[in-house]
Amino acid sequence: MQRATVSIFDPDDKTSGFGLSGDHGPKPSEVYGFVGSITTVVATVIFLVWAYVPESWLQSVGISYYPSRYWALAVPTYVMVTIVLMLGFYIGLNFISTPSPASLNTIFDEFSRDPLSLECSLEEDEKPIEPISDIGIDRINDIMFNNAT
To answer: What is the pTM of this model?
Structure first.
């Protein structure tokens, strides 16, 4: 007599919730994330030990070959200055590539659409939705400045 076995796990289910993608093991993005986080923690600990532990302690442990302590301040400083300069360069590049406020290119471009006039004698409730179009600058000015009370 054969007995039927019941399992809560489906052997044909390829999408188990344990980070496994089918029969090929963990997803590469998860592995890269794990390795990257462990590497970051290890590199930070090594940097802090190198930067703050006195040389006599390092030599007593047997570590005698390491970069000058100058680089413990110079590298982070260079990185921060580079980031600030890149940010300034990016903002300046955006200012250079933006047209002046008096230019008509800030109002009209190749994608501008003039509103179509739909003359329709339908009731108020049955009017069709107007097609997408730009609102004219004269109408914007009228709404913003002439109706101010």
So the answer is: 0.50
